[in-house]
Write a structure and sequence with these properties.
Two copies of one chain form a homodimer.
Chain A lengths: L15 E13 L3 E8 L2 E8 L10 E10 L7 E10 L20 H6 L1 H4 L3 H23 L3 E2 L5 E2 L11 E4 L2 E5 L4 H11 L1 E9 L12 E10 L4 H20 L2 H7 L12 E3 H7 L11 H15 L3 E5 L12 E2 L2 E5 L1 E6 L2 E9 L3 H10 L8 H8 L5 E7 H9 L20
Parallel strand pairs in A: 6-10, 12-13
Antiparallel strand pairs in A: 1-2, 1-4, 2-3, 4-5, 7-9, 8-9, 10-11, 11-18, 13-16, 14-15, 16-17, 17-18
Helix pairs in contact in A: 3-5, 3-6, 3-11
Chain lengths: 422, 422
């Protein structure tokens, strides 16, 4: 019967215990040899005689011995009189010393050796924050009557434009990798009213930046019977609070990563795009916020509202996709928003058009033919409610939590212009 | 303040109530008009005067009125003195009458009009079983110390063979769509020991069958520090029990679909492949089970063990992928299994190789060069535990539960040789 490292501290002193895991570190002292074992739960210390034959770091082993109290050992209990059994051949030397407190390697080394370097406890904890976030995302939405859906990643037409789309050879004809589940999640509002999906999205980003990936995890939400985009923002607020609570329930991972958890305010402060431009001193006809504007707005939100989050609503219609709902009374602006988290864009959301004639007009206004969108538009011809939604990028979220300089540092196996392996 | 149809029965008689949803059905009688409203929670009856102007079926509306007890109405309460407000233009006539108890359409009609026909309550309930299954899958594994992971769908090499793989134009060079997360989930056993993923997998299936899709949802599990494939089967047993329990917690969806829920036995019965061949009277050198053999085995499991499930272990190594662990003592057979559910293959699983030299030998034995698998094999050179796992096809699972003749009937937007829309 195997005991996890984490549970060793609860073992009765003197009990015979078997641990299994990786040799995290060996330390030969003059009169004693330490083997630190790592498993999914944590670390444990094993005491062996001086000169004992300890396999190299990362070898998988089974260790049987006696649980013995020692205030110096992790958890206050170590294994003595231990027998070490190898589960494979001795492991090759890892590309970095995984037992050191920090993984001090260059980004290319980290990514080339991801299968091994993700084993470092501080690196592994980063993904544990991602996994906890997913749990919090889903449980919050399940409570609110949302249905999880699965939409196709192979699609006939590019979602929003022909740019940045990957082409697939689909039984001899072209297909595309979905850039977002936008069209399908809207159609499914017609079925379930409230839907969410966690899945990969694909962007053929031709630029090398610290924030973009060719494939990332999108946390997508869409809901019907709303008044306007403010109802969408209220759901986003609760989702973020649920994600933060789930992350906080993994205190050991939070500590390992040094993540700084935000407080999600009861109401996320909102500023209109036009006011945001004025606030940062940008010309009133700017169509978008520059990164330095987003940073300044983040600082303002923290100083003025004590909030790590700020929603900028009303983005110019000209810069939003065709399905965006205009702001009633002033169609220069839209009922959409970006959510800034610590001065960086984390979420895009808003209200969508819901009337079939509005879709026809919006598509024609972009010089396209509604017939090309026929399978999407059938949902609207057969009755759709006012609706909206948002999408959170999982990797960006975790990168902000742990203040990673590059989104690749928190992505298990990133894909970009240059990287297709491991 | 909106009330859901399902909650109308709890309204105080005489209370003013507002419902929102779709016009599910209108019925004009001589002295009265009925409007049946549908929302995500169910149906409600609205009473209007004879000759009232009721919008056509599927139009979205807001209805305000007085909650009034009526034993004939769904839930025992209906809305009287009602005012109906349209939320869009009147809806176009749907491709089938969604208010009829059964959706009596051909498969092509069902698939061409999926965005509208999924609204039918009995059809919608099928996907609700899928969503519940996902919840049960994840919660069971979360309890058992598994970590959810996200592996790339864009990969450099085909997972198991060059056959049935989709090619992507990846910034001017070829990439492939992952046929399974197999390689990456194994690597991540090295990090988290126990991992799962729910995600799309892609198979360029050149054949039109009732069981195959070009894109489907795979529920993948992999765990380390096992004795052999029987430990994997034990986890699979608990996962299936968790999925059935989650489905059972949606009794209204179970009833709507007529799903027949299996009892998951404490131990799933196991038969060796060689014994299975003998049992069905097949030649002892058959390399695989034919569909009629699987059916016969399913009947045998039910008659002999009272079980809807049967694990067939020991499949010939020659028919299994290179990473399969052979059966100790007789390398003709493997430590792998297929799980039959009611006589159809639902799950494939087993123990994998875990020693680096075994991988080199297995890959060379297939006439390939281990160097081509370098990024995958680095995990094994740096220490991996004995491990194994399995994959469940979500759509096949739901199809078996509701006894759908074709897996496409339970897939939101199926993709196959001929179909890339809606």
């Amino acid at each position: 019967m195997r005991t996890l490292c984490h549970d060793l501290s609860a073992s009765t002193p003197g009990a015979e215990v078997t641990l299994e895991g990786w040799v995290h570190r060996r330390r030969e002292l003059a009169r004693i040899t330490f083997l630190v074992l790592r498993d999914r739960s944590g670390l444990a210390q094993v005491v062996l005689p001086a000169g004992a034959d300890v396999p190299p770091e990362e070898t998988t082993v089974r260790v049987s011995g006696t649980a013995t109290a020692n205030a110096q050992a992790p958890g206050g209990v170590e294994l003595t009189d231990a027998v070490v059994e190898l589960l494979t051949e001795p492991a090759a030397t890892p590309p970095a010393e995984l037992w050191r407190p920090r993984l001090d390697v260059s980004l290319p080394t980290l990514l080339d050796h991801a299968p091994v370097l993700w084993r470092h406890p501080a690196q592994r904890a980063r993904w544990q924050l991602a996994a906890a976030s997913l749990r919090g995302f889903r449980s919050t939405l399940d409570e609110m009557g949302f249905t999880e859906v699965a939409t196709p990643k192979l699609v006939e037409t590019a979602t929003e434009s022909g740019a940045n789309v990957f082409t697939v050879d689909y039984f001899g004809r072209p297909a595309y990798l979905a850039q977002s589940p936008q069209f399908h999640k809207q159609q499914l509002v017609g079925v379930f009213e409230r839907v969410y999906e966690v899945g990969p999205v694909f962007r053929a980003e031709p630029h090398d930046t610290v924030r973009h990936l060719a494939e990332y995890r999108s946390l997508d939400v869409e809901l019907g019977f709303i008044e306007d985009h403010r109802d969408v923002l209220a759901v986003l607020r609760d989702v973020l609070a649920g994600m933060v609570a789930a992350v906080a329930s993994r205190p050991e991972a939070v500590e390992r990563t040094g993540a700084r958890l935000p407080v999600v305010p009861e109401q996320i402060p909102v500023i209109h795009f036009a006011d945001a431009l004025a606030l940062v001193g940008a010309p009133a006809d700017e169509p978008d916020l520059a990164p330095e504007h987003e940073r300044a707005l983040g600082e303002w939100a923290l100083a003025e509202h004590g909030s790590d989050f700020l929603a900028v609503e009303g983005y110019p219609m000209a810069k939003r996709p065709f399905y965006t709902h205009p702001q009633p009374g002033d169609a220069r602006w839209s009922n959409s928003f970006d959510l800034l988290f610590r001065g960086l864009e984390l979420v895009t959301g808003g209200q969508r058009l819901h009337r079939a004639p509005d879709y026809d007009a919006a598509i024609r206004a972009r010089g396209e033919d509604p017939a090309a969108y026929d399978s999407y538009l059938q949902a609207f011809r057969h009755g759709m409610p006012p609706h909206g939604g948002f999408a959170i990028g999982l990797e960006r979220w975790v990168a902000r939590l742990v203040e990673a300089a590059n989104v690749r540092e928190v992505t298990l196996f990133p894909r970009d212009l240059h990287r297709l392996a491991p």
